[in-house]
Amino acid sequence: MEYIGNEQTGYNSKQKKNETMGHKIILSGRTAGIITGVTDIEEFDNDTIDLTTTLGRMVIKGRDLKVKGLNLETGEARIEGNVDSLVYTSKNNRDSFLKRLFQ
Q: What pTM was computed for the model?
């Protein structure tokens, strides 16, 4: 954790270092990519990669997908495979559904 704040205001908040980083997607020929600003990979298989970024949840769909590398300190994920779609969802999409289900 890293403290982020302003000494003049006295405001301090705890944030993970990679949450303050920018978010970028570099996709080469729909077969290899680098995604920055990644905070977690929820799950993945050959057809889907479900990850959390600083801008919300992202679901990548395709064929023969692989996570070739993940560095949570830098917030970078490397993927390979045939990417068919890349969709952002809300940050707390899964949590809010579960909360609604059990209320």
A: 0.68
